Amino acid sequence: MQMGCAVGGTLPGSLSPVETELVTRHFNVLTPENCMKPGPLQPEPGRFDFAAGDALLHFASERGMHVVGHTLVWHNQTSPWMYAAGIGKSEALRQMEQHIRTVVGHYRGKLQGWDVVNEAVVDGPEGYLRETPALAALGTEYLPLAFRLARETDPDVELYYNDYSIEVPAKRERTLRLLDLLDSAGQKPHGVGIQGHWILDEVPFDDIATALRLFSERGLRVMITELDIDVVPRKTAGAEVTARSADGDDPYAAGCPPELLERQARQYEQLFELFLEHEVSRVTFWGPNDARTWLNYWPSARTNHPLLFDRNSQPKPAYARVMAVAERHALAR
Ligand code: XIL
Fold it and tell me: Following DSSP, what letter does each residue of 21-69 receive, concatenated?
């Protein structure tokens, strides 16, 4: 099982020496937290900015680490002109084709895989595909098209569908339907990424086990791509990036109470039992340590403690638990 983490900013400058050491020592695959999203990569029509992505690749290759590209098609962090209402289908097609061919072409042969499409199915009890600008402009065919363009441009790179809460039955069924749609268009992905933005005491272990089984039964590699366990109570569920919580509470600014850290450790332990049992191929944490987590500023600003390493890059109780599971599993094999 590969162990990864997301890194933000432009490397190496955005990580301290201690964080660089942490990332190098504990992880073997990196995901760029923001710099390979459509908006940052193509801020203006036809102008591409690969500087931060190239620096990340250089950082990784110096350390023998792999890199996963994130992401080619998403409704967030994408310049509004790209699939703007009113540009017409052929122009939207041209935009998608130019973006994917340019970006996948630039990184051809250098990445392990791409999250081709991110978050394409709806939340909630009803519905199927999320009403995104790409869907409005191109119809459902945007999904197989994105995979086809990526595959044509780099035939050797792995291609993934990535989304949050797709372990929960309603979204899981929609995701299986989407995977069928890709399959019947001849664009079956190599794998599916369950983001794994979970909340302390609300981790849906049974749903996760079922989803891991069902996705693997489709012959797909299953990855946990953005793992964290939020410890701060919030009102907004899920991981919709545009959602904002109204409460500005910051209960753990002075530190995370030990009993919470212990509960978090046990929940991480239980998760890794499942990941190992179901042969998850990669687990990527969404950040190297608690100082660098997006949960410090989303869905509202507060001091969060969701990862295995604390603000000083020191291992938390969860780290020892995860290591112990890995060891037990290795011994049992
Ligand atoms: C987040 C980043 O961590 C933040 O820095 C950024 O402001 C918003 O996006 N699902 C995804 C990730 O697929 O790309 C998101 O990352 C978190 C939710």
Answer: HHHHHH-SEEEESSTTSHHHH-SBTTB---HHHHHHHHHHHHTT-EEEE
Q: What is the phi/psi pair of residue 51, to 5°?
A: -60, -50
Q: Which of 223, 220, 78 is nearest to 163 (CA)?
A: 223
Q: Which residues belong to the active site?
A: 119, 226
Structural domains present in the chain: 2-234 (3.20.20.80)
Question: What is the spatial distance between Cα 150 and Cα 20, in angstroms, rounded to a whole number?
Answer: 31
| 0.85 surpassed by pTM | yes
With a 6 A CB cut-off, is 243 part of the ligand 1 pocket?
A: no
- CB-ligand 1 contact for 118 (6 Å cutoff): yes
Task: Tell me the pLDDT tens digit for each residue of 242-274.
Answer: 544 444 589 999 999 999 999 999 999 999 999
- C-beta 14 within 6 A of ligand 1: no
Distance CA 10, CA 51 (A): 8
